[in-house]
Amino acid sequence: MINNSSIKDVGGSNTLLLHLKRKEIENYLLDYEVIAQAAADLVEERKKYTGKSISYPTVEEIKAEVNSILDSPEIRSTVKCQLVPKYREKMLDSSLDSSTKERKGEEWFEQKWNDENWQIRNCPGKEVLKRLRTWCQQTYGLTLTPPKLAATLHQLPDDVQEIMDKLQEYFYS
């Protein structure tokens, strides 16, 4: 059964509105295992042509770098400025005074920001991925492109698979 919270027929215009559970499509590429595998694959491809093996980042190094990027003031501030106002508008009682809303919004953000998975879902994925790719290029001489990362994904994330299933049902049922 198609769940209207994920897929909608907009005004009978045959236009579908889909809602992913991450801020940007690039956020799905911020998977430590996938990034490490893509780097390993690049090293193997290079070794076939040059005969030389070079080092590449481990899952732990990738995780540490992503966390470092997420901890940067620019990324944290971007996420906070985008989400706290929405939280205050939609989730807080309109009878609360503005200082109480501000405090509750700050508390909500701090609590959410402590969850690494929440950070990955809500960060500016394009920017985080860009910084991670730059680090990988400068540190290891490896160019990780979004298509290479996407090709390394062997299993779709659950919410993407759910939408694919719903599209299949919508168009072919």
Please, could you describe this protein's structure?
The protein has 173 residues and is mainly alpha-helical. The chain has one domain (27-157). Helices cover 64% and strands 3% of the residues. The protein contains eight helices and two strands. The protein has helices spanning 32-50, 59-70, 73-91, 98-113, 116-122, 125-140, 146-152, 158-172, and strands spanning 7-9, 16-18. The protein has a two-stranded antiparallel sheet. Strand 1 (7-9) and strand 2 (16-18) form a beta hairpin. Helix 1 crosses helix 2, helix 1 (32-50) packs across helix 7 (146-152) and helix 3 packs across helix 4. The chain starts with 6 loop residues before the first strand and ends with a helix. The model is unreliable at 1-6 (pLDDT under 50).
Topology:
Layout: E1 7-9, E2 16-18, H1 32-50, H2 59-70, H3 73-91, H4 98-113, H5 116-122, H6 125-140, H7 146-152, H8 158-172
Antiparallel strand pairs: 1-2
Helix pairs in contact: 1-2, 1-7, 2-6, 3-4
Number of helices: 8
Kindly provide the radius of gyration, computed on alpha-carbon positions and rounded to a whole number of angstroms.
Answer: 20 Å
- The total strand number stands at 2
Beta-strand share of residues: under 5%
| Quaternary structure classification | single chain
Helix content: 55-70%
Report the sheet with the most strands, covering strand number, pairing sense and barrel closure.
2 strands, antiparallel
Q: Structural class, from secondary structure content?
A: mainly alpha
The H-and-E topology, N to C, reads as EEHHHHHHHH
